[in-house]
Amino acid sequence: MSTKFTAVLLISLCASMLAMPDANAYSEADFQTAFQSLRAGSGNEERAAKAFQNLLSTEPGQPLLMAYAGSATSRLAVTTIFPWKKMSYAEEGLAMIDKALILAEKEPAQLHGNTLQLLEIKLVAASTFLAVPEFMNRHARGQKLLDDILVHPQLSTADLGFRGEVWMRAARLAQQQKRIDDAKKLAQEVIRNQAPQAEKAKQLLQDLSA
């Protein structure tokens, strides 16, 4: 695992953290704190993983917490030089995400703020799958999950920040795959909707036109 894994994952993960339903046993403030540790990047991997694992312990079957805990756990792979530990962290994290996806499908109407929890989990999963090394054979599934989000009928009612994150992640993937027209269209969608990622989309358009 390389620092590129950390960088790609940090860019990709959803940054639109909204109020959780009152039915949850944990507080949104604690969730936000854990997320900020995850987003902080290099040097914060262990803190982020521990924070999400602690949250998950309050609701062991909560799929959104499980997805983020899995993503954070997989990032621990960059904290060790030992190949067997790298694989152990990555595989443990990916297994948690796989389970979170299964659990989320059983409650497809659950919301996280204005966004379907299932869609957010799919974005966490897609971002993580696309960030791990290709030999782990997750990239195709990551792209499939991202495509599923893009065509989901309730994406249009999701929080604008979440939609912007989806469009930007898809645009970057299209850029990587040399699908320049698709990347431009997705970046333009961010700008057209005035999503919080609009400045990043403008920069991406400049890069694509260079």
Automatic annotation (TrEMBL):
Signal peptide segment: 1-25
Keyword list, A-Z: Signal
Originating organism: Undibacterium rivi
Protein name: Tetratricopeptide repeat protein
Top-rank lineage group of the source organism: Bacteria
